[in-house]
Amino acid sequence: MEALGRDDEVDAGRLKLLASDGGVPDDDGGRARAMVWKVCLEYLPKERARWEATERARREEYGRFLEEFCASTTTTTTSGAWIDARRGDELAEQIDRDVARVHPDMHFFNDEGEDGEGGRRKDEMRNALYVFAKLNPGVGYVQGMHEMYGCIYYVLANSADAHAAPNAAAADAFYCFTEIFGEFRDVFVMELDATDQGVRALLDELSDMLAVHGPEVHGHLEDLNLTTSMYAFRWITLLFTQDFEFADVLRLWDVMLASPRSRKECLLRLCVACVLNIGSELIDGDFATCMKMLQNYPPVDIRRITRLAAALPYGIAR
Amino acid sequence: MTGAQSASNAFKVVLLGEGRVGKTSLLLRYVENTFSETQTPTVQATYLSKRVALENDGAATLNVWDTAGQERFHALGPIYYRDADAAVLVYDITDSDSFDRVKSWVKELRQIAGSEISLAVCANKSDLERARKVSQSDGETYAKSIGAAFFSTSAKADKGVAQAFMSVATALDAKRGKSAAGGGGAGTKTSGVGRSRSLKIAEEEMKPRGGDCC
């Protein structure tokens, strides 16, 4: 990660190139990844000297949103207190239910013991999603947002100065979430389903891409009447968060966030790679076998997927 | 093409109901005998199949689509219930809105899947009796009014779950057997049981519509 180096200005292009090739190190407690994501999502400007001021301003602004929509900038640690203060608020209840169930197997979100941070972290997630829904009434809250926000929040809470200010990680994650969500917003809007911007159009595009890059496996799945909507809907709406090991999800996100082209296109190319990677098994399978394999993706070295995706040629006419 | 599937007495079943009423939990209790308080919300219909030994010594395969509860994800719903043999409608006894949602599902099903589809209603979370909002008799009366079987279930306490799915499988098997006996043309050699022939017909009919997407 030399691109992050010591220069006054981060070489964003070089950074993206490294990150999209699986080059973000895992062995520094996730600090590099937090920084890479912030830069790739343009939350932080290229000029290093402006980072501190940028973060300070954003965190203050987020603090004001919390005051406006969540009544308090501090969060309580009592389990259930967040929702108890909002009974009858349907939006809050829905967010509460989903956040309560986020990655039940991960210590980060479920560290509920004495001095446990799990409760506080979940409250920060609830607040962020609530603020987002209030600021974006056209979208509100849709299931899946909690997974996306959770993923970003996890990464940013690991960054070096996460404890610098209350709500710092939550605020950083809020703006990064807003940025990435903006790109996939149409997928979440039901009114757009039938249009060429909505999720169905994206699933059709994936099908077309599969026909180009893997005609044999595509043909087999078509024969089985097994459509992309049956397995890739979750890949697309949750950006892989429920389908791979968390460490692998982060790798896939590195690639997507750093993509020099559109992130949507990058996502679809990763989806194609996921299918091609198990193509030989799929071709021998019946409907039930293929369905199970695609919905419960077999263990994989995630770099196989990212390399397969990177190797797909661009610009083939359909 | 899908040998194993064609050979079996297979039925397509779809689970419907509002978010968080316990559809996935019911299915996981039934198929894997597990339960988790923190079941992840389902955003994409999930496919599970289970071979069931019937009381009449026969067997059936239930191919179950566990659908997403949140309204947002219903765009793709019809492909899961269009060719379904049965729909299991689930509500949470502590949430009367979820009971209303079952009623609107039934209307939608009637329009798209027709009246042939078998229905069952599961009044789930029966372990939360103290917080009950929908009375058992309301549930039963409604189920009767739409010609559906009614089950009081708790995925958590493992009450009534196996019975519900078993009953759905038995009813579907009987229905298929009956339609074979009634429809019987001459000239086909079958192994004595009318059902196997009816199954063939049913599958041939299904091809153009749903193919192997059982």
TrEMBL record, chain A:
Pfam families: RabGAP-TBC. Signal peptide: none annotated. PROSITE patterns: TBC_RABGAP (PS50086). GO terms for molecular function: GTPase activator activity. SUPFAM superfamilies: Ypt/Rab-GAP domain of gyp1p (SSF47923). InterPro entries: Rab-GAP-TBC_dom, Rab-GAP_TBC_sf. SMART domains: TBC. Residues 27-260 form the Rab-GAP TBC domain. GO terms for biological process: intracellular protein transport. This is Rab-GAP TBC domain-containing protein. It comes from Ostreococcus lucimarinus (strain CCE9901).
TrEMBL record, chain B:
It is found in: Endomembrane system. PROSITE patterns: RAB, RAS, RHO. Its main location: membrane. Residues 200-214 have a biased composition (Basic and acidic residues). Residues 177-214 are annotated as: Disordered. It comes from the Eukaryota. Belongs to the small GTPase superfamily. Rab family. NCBIfam families: small_GTP. This is Ras-related protein Rab-21. It comes from Ostreococcus lucimarinus (strain CCE9901).
